[in-house]
Amino acid sequence: MADAEGRGCDSTDQVNSSSGNSDDVVKFKDPLLTGLDRDSDDDGMESLDLDGSSKSEVTVSRSSSLIANFRLDEDVDAETRDLFIKVDDPEKHTSTLEAYITFRVTTKTTRAEFESSDFSVRRRYNDFLWLRQRLEETYHTHLVPPLPEKHSLKRLDRFSQEFLRVRQKALQKFLTRLADHPVLSFDKNVQVFLTAKAWEFQAHKKQGKGYISQVTDSIHNMGASYMMKNRPAEFGLMHEYINIFGEKLAVMDRIATRVLREQADYHAELCEWGPCYVLWGNSEDDLKAALLSMAKAIDQCCHCLKDLIDDTDDNLAQPLKEYILYTECIKAVLRRRDAIQMEYDMVVDELNKRKDEKENVKISDQTYSIGAFLGKDPEDVKHQKEEKLDQMIVDLTRQMEVLNDRTVVANANLKADMERWHKTKQRDVKEILMALADRQIRYYEKCLLVWEDAIRAIQKKDNDPSALASIDQPPADDTNTAAGNSSGTDNTSSGVESDNANNTATVS
Amino acid sequence: MADEGESIPTSEEKRTEKREEKKTEKIERPRPTHLLQWMEMTVSEPEKRTVASMKMQDTFIVYLVETRVTDPSMRGYGEGATSVWRRYSEFELLRNYLDATFPAVVVPPLPEKKASYTWQNASTDKFDPDFVERRRAALEIFLLRVAAHPKLCQDKIFAGFLKEENGWKESVYATDFQSKAESRLKALNAAFRLKKPDRRFEELKNYSNELQNNIANILKIRTHLCDKLYGIHKVHANYARVFHEWSLIEKDISQPLQSAGHYMDVYASSVDAALEEEEQYADQLKEYYAFGDSLRSVCRRYECAQYDLERGEDTLSTKAVQRDLLRAIINGTELPASAQGKSGNAFSLSGMKTKLFGGDTPEQRDVKLKQLEEQIAQTEIELRQTTDETQVFVEAALRDIDRFKRQKVKDLREIFTNYAVMQIKQCKKGIAIWTSAKDCFSKM
């Protein structure tokens, strides 16, 4: 019988470092708990089942996945990346039943598993959905990147340019993330998705088991999460982090939406302002040119603002939404992990209960048991009970080992994926925020040029070169520009005056 | 007419000016074209004063009006420096006086009594420091414009406004300027009943209406723009808050997030100063909006003058017809053509005859004829005088309008340039803030 107290592993388990033995106050030794301050590599290695006897297909992929998990993220660089996927070229298809859009998915790779190095196929949104579902089912403790939502919230037309552009970018992101994942990208389904011709692909889709529906899966998982008592600290931290992070993302999304709305309102008003100056110009002669210059400057600022608004939607609103979806995925995976651990915990409890029962039976007096009552020898009754319990203990122990493996693997997968995700998140967030700042800077730079041009145009008088000189006169000359002067305590005005002089001094 | 803004007039121009002025105005002593060429003027230091009378307490703002002679050679003519305290209502009184006393002048307008076209955070309270400061600036511009005007600057009441704090109000009322103002009824009649209106004043009226419409549109939309811009900036303060909260759960990116959040706050609060500064633009446009009213006043006075003229002409021609008729009757000649329905009035000859001459003895008729001829002579003299006056008025008005137009072009160019400068300043600030934020982000 395996000694459940110290090892927690199959007797065939050969790799068993010292950390697995020491300091276990907990009834059952969870290697990951002790490994908190050690390298994740070691933890994973501990529970690797290198003995081939009970290997299944799942184990193979499990071990390769574990190894792959701990390849450092720096490996997934432009230089070492060996799988490039591009999504573009949306096309509308009409069949008798429906109309839908497909995107071209182009793959370039040097991986040996692929029969050649270039592929080009067409896929529709449902195909992506299928792929994701498959991956989630197969790797339910890994982090599968999110897909954009099926229906867009604001725009209703799923064939509009705008909608297609946004969706294309999101699908691109999905596949890029997938390609960068050291485990998921090697999945057979991924390969089929990227390479199979239309009819091949349809056939392939039909295979495979229908699985636990997502809905029941998540309800079950949520229950587990709620009742979790022994959640390891690091996963508890992950839960907390993801919850708060998700909240903050949602707030940022709301702020970004609000800013966009206010900017759109401002833009609408600004578009009406320019024409006012043009209208005014219609009733002026000498002033007409200046008024038209103002109108032109305002209209140009309008365009700059429109560019800013459009860019922001692409590069802030959408990425934020993607990360919100990502956060939801992570929460689901965390819940699944909890459920897995829960199953394991329950079996452990059951096992210990039976062991206690067995101890009690050993020392018990069966004289007054039911069996004795029925005429059996109390000693026999005792033995029968003991045997029954022994069998249960053996069964439970085996179950426990399987579940332990599953738990350990789940934890390792999740941990590795989370670390990778944190790095990606940091990179992405930095990019998003820098782009935000960049856009604002470029907007202001453009507007600045617009207004500098406007000043030149307004100050230009075709027949009166001395006019430029008169502007440079010191502000004390009140008669010249009574409107611009307000001597005395009005500092901004005189500051503006000297700014004006500086600006026009640079006019050639 | 010399453009008094461009440069100090040469001695040649000064002499021409003096000659011109000698013709139309009485001048006390020889001077350059206008006050500002040798005097400095400021309106400053707004202060709150409270005056308690029997039943109520009156609180108002007073402004310090100071002048100083800058040209040493003019020392003898003006006081060295003056300073008086004036409140808004006294400025109003001054302007009303100038408006009534100089009908052919486009009198500069005062800043508005109550705040208009305010966006959501601009204050409408007349004691608010920003409002008071803007009013102070506008009052100063008003005084400077008056001082820069060759006719207005010579007025004694204006001089008194600058020098005599006590008793000035009484001196204004003593001039009885209100009686010079045209009655409203007359102005209304004049507007509709002119037979030969001068096209130039008609056009000017239309122009002033259009000017006011255009400026009103610009001001209205500007108000909306201010509201929206304010909203955009203030929402960014929320970014600051969420960055801060987010930084609490992060390790590596915590510091950059917090620093960036600080810049979001800076961005949010930068809008207050920017919008306050932009109010200056609105004030300058509002001044020109009010100038539209001044223009229309001049047109109105023209119409009244022309109306008087035309009425005089009508009276004259009516009397002439009567005289001709009477003469014809006395002499038994044919009725002259002048009595035959000319001049547009529908005479009923028989009615007239009976009215005027029915039952008269020949001696009475002679007396009447003599009276008529005297009246006609009198009216002719009056008419000539009115015509001369009107002509003088029209010339002066058109000259001043031309001056106004040139000033307007210069001013508005300057105003728009200033607006552009303000925008550039805001852009630079935006660039600075977001560059700092980007710098923070780059450290993530």
Q: Can you characterise this structure?
A:
The complex is a heterodimer of chains A (508) and B (444). By secondary structure, chain A is mainly alpha-helical. Helix content of chain A is 63%, strand content 6%. Chain A has 14 helices and 3 strands. Chain A has a 3-stranded antiparallel sheet with strand order 1-2-3. In chain A, helix 10 packs antiparallel against helix 12. The longest helix of chain A has 82 residues, at 378-459. Chain A starts with 30 loop residues before the first helix and ends with a helix. By secondary structure, chain B is mainly alpha-helical. Chain B has a 3-stranded antiparallel sheet. In chain B, helix 6 (184-193) crosses helix 8 (254-331). At the A-B interface, helix 9, helix 10, helix 12 and helix 14 of A face strand 1, helix 3, helix 7, helix 8 and helix 10 of B. Chain A: It is a peripheral membrane protein. Chain A: Keywords: Cytoplasm, Lipid-binding, Membrane, Transport. Chain A: This is PX domain-containing protein. Chain A: Residues 1-54, 463-508 are annotated as: Disordered.
Strand order of the largest sheet of chain A: 1-2-3
Query: Radius of gyration of chain A over alpha carbons?
Result: 35 Å
Interface with most residues: A-B, 72 and 80 residues
What is the share of helical residues of chain A? 55-70%
Order of helices and strands of chain B: HEEEHHHHHHHHH
Helices and strands of chain A: which structural class?
mainly alpha
- For the largest sheet of chain B, list the strands in their spatial order: 1-2-3
Distance between the termini of chain A: 96 Å
Secondary-structure blueprint:
The complex is a heterodimer of chains A (508) and B (444).
Chain A: H1 31-34, H2 40-46, H3 57-69, E1 83-94, E2 99-109, E3 118-124, H4 125-138, H5 161-180, H6 188-195, H7 198-206, H8 214-227, H9 233-281, H10 288-363, H11 370-373, H12 378-459, H13 465-471, H14 491-505
Antiparallel strand pairs in A: 1-2, 2-3
Helix pairs in contact in A: 3-12, 8-10, 9-10, 10-12
Chain B: H1 11-24, E1 39-52, E2 57-69, E3 81-87, H2 88-101, H3 129-148, H4 156-163, H5 168-174, H6 184-193, H7 199-247, H8 254-331, H9 349-357, H10 362-442
Antiparallel strand pairs in B: 1-2, 2-3
